[in-house]
Amino acid sequence: MTEHVKKSSRILAIDILRGITIAGMILVNNPGSWSHIFAPLHHADWNGMTPTDLVFPFFMFIMGVCIFISLSKFEFKCDRATVIKIIRRTILIYLVGVAIGWFSRFCYRWNEPLENAGLLDQIWYMVWSFDKMRISGVLARLAVCYGIASLVAITVRHRYISHIVVTLLAGYCILLLAGNGFVSGETNILSVVDRAVLTDAHMYHDQGVDPEGLLSTIPSIAHTLLGFLVGRLLFQKRIQDVVADVKTHLLVSKIVPLFVVGAVLTFSGFLLSYGCPINKKIWSPTFVLVTCGLASIVLALLVYFIDVKEHHRWCRFFEVFGVNPLFLYVLSDFFAIVFGAFSFKIGGEETTIIGLLYNDMLQPIFGDYGGSLAYSVLFVLLNWAIGYQLYKRRIYIKL
Question: Which chain regions cross the lipid bilayer (predicted)?
């Protein structure tokens, strides 16, 4: 759905943090060469955390904050219209993820046709790309967490949501301890369940575990609900009132408690990590605590500098990503598929757009690692340029 919207008073820091995470996700997902990536742009191999491991959980956190803002407009009423809207958006986000997965399979099959196959067989082979298509994924996780967290928000008294978060995280930790969940490989309970339900053909294998698999969705829901609770902390008044007096009241009444909550969550996560390791691939409970804590601290700092002190000049780049986040993320996936799937010949040698830009242009100038990063930056700028055209026309595309 495309909307032409008048820009209104709002907490700009939320858009900026959302934009930073989307730009970060696009950057780390699109190197010029997967063999040449600087260490901070890698995910942790197993236990531990790198800066790259923060971008997706930060986005899920801010999604929880935005769920509070969105549903507060309807006073959290559990009526037919609200439920239908939530379910419709959940299904739409999931189907967009399915479409991207299908498009990727279609393009690569187009580039690698069947041998000795007739025209109809070849067309069917390309079109019917579901046989080995991944069922889970980033958009699938966002859809499920958005849908469940939103339904919880309109059906459960908000003071009990923290109890749900604790129950989900504690229960998941027990499941990991009982099911070999902190060990990589196919004996991990997460891998066992995913292979039994999704099957190997429809999984992404990373240390034997699908990082967006079924069971690890449990703590992801808690993650989104923590973002919702932070949204409640920020916007306990009506949203219009909070924005109107942001300069006079937000600093003392909102920023300091938000910073304290972030510090407590972060400290608790690191303290508990001695018994429950921080691990993104299994979305461990301590990973939830640390990333939500850090996101709260970053949000508090951004609110202070952007909305209180009004340091806006540097924000526009990230605001472009923040006002059309899912559209630009999906667009980046589309470009990544096209740039990597379709090959062509130059000087008798077969290459792709990625190969042409990285191997023939950037790598000779910046070297292996520098060229790979330069490609990532150019790829981010390409998506930003398209997003900027929407931004300056105040066109916001909502999924």
Answer: 12-34, 54-74, 86-104, 135-156, 163-183, 213-235, 255-274, 286-306, 326-346, 366-391
